[in-house]
Amino acid sequence: MKVARVAFYVTALGLLVVGLRELLTGFEE
């Protein structure tokens, strides 16, 4: 199913973005 694959990629990208943002904000402080 393409929908499941797209949802998986969106979730993975979202987690990556959140993780990177947390690292950057933590690094600045």
Automatic annotation (TrEMBL):
Domain of life per record: Eukaryota
TM ranges: 6-24
Keyword Transmembrane helix among record annotations: yes
Alphabetic keyword roster: Membrane, Transmembrane, Transmembrane helix
The protein's name in its UniProt record: Post-GPI attachment to proteins 1
Organism the protein comes from: Iconisemion striatum
Lineage, highest ranks first: Eukaryota, Metazoa, Chordata, Craniata, Vertebrata
Gene that this polypeptide is encoded by: PGAP1
